[in-house]
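Running this now, will post back.
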Amino acid sequence: MTLHRTYGLTRILNARGTYTPLGVSRASAAIGRAVSEALSGFFVIDELQSRLSDVVSHMTGAQAATVTHCVASGITLSIAASMAGADPDKVAALPDASGLPNRVVVPAGHAVDYGHPILTDIRLAGGIPVLAGTPARCTLDDLAHALADARTACLLLVSSRLVRGERIDLAEAAAAAHRRGVPAIIDGAAQDMRIQELLATGADLVLVSPHKYMASPTAGLVIGRRPLVDAVRAQERGIGRAMKATKEAIVGVLAALEERQTLDLDAWRAEQDRKLRWFLDHTKSIAGIDTRALPDPAGMPFSRAGLQVDPSHPLKTAPALASALQQGEPSIWVMDHLAAQGQLVLELVPLDQDELQEIVERLTALST
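Update: finished.
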């Protein structure tokens, strides 16, 4: 808490998950040491990227990987790579995509907003978003129809709890793109524990945020077929110059990957289950709220706590309770995307036992 005192900053209890406006995640001491050492040294960035690619290939079986500034930039650069390849003249011309295939097909329910619209990432590269189907449903026929245009550069799919409508089989969607000779890209930003599962869909590129559950510095990890990964790296001679990864980010991702390789996932998952059970046990008697486990809708290996606010609660509504939690000291942030339905969601992964106790005590105080 030294920085909070030094700069007069608000103390946060983050039950909102890997949320960018709160700083996303907490890095381990080992990752912090690696980043600190990187900051005090000089490196050939291409060597760092190549070493990173080797490590990811060994871990996942993918052909290649590269680090971008974040996944949002990774999306833009992957779109650019699909349009321009590694051709220097085409790379330099973007975002002017004149004469290039620049249609980017997106299932309508995958046109998510995660702080800004994902469609903006497409437009930044010079691409033109083309929505397939409706927000409620996108069929393979809808995708095939949208992909049939010869000006199509790629298919962009999203694996996230923010996706709307019926779930699309990602493997079938990627296969539909490949039948048209079109690459498939999956944005799996917060799905870093599902990298191999997402690669198994046959997608040409899979993008994840290593600064989420791997807790590296801010970075995007682009993984997949070597020619397309190389084309992503080639964009640094064009629009990607403004989206490049720093030395400390690449080293931090390497350190985070090393930690992930040694992670005992069963033990980690058991600890998340323990915290959730403890929280549910200690909130079940609080007046005006009802808590239950909510599995991650995108398949990550943990559940969150769903908190249903009863009208008998002193604050009456979920939005009012979320506001009261945030305005207190410390400021407690929760997921409020279901607040209109009377429900708040708490992700307990980044919280320690003392912080869980503080949240229970605050909820108890606000319910009396």
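The domain at 42-262 is CATH 3.40.640.10 (Aspartate Aminotransferase; domain 2). More later if anyone needs it.
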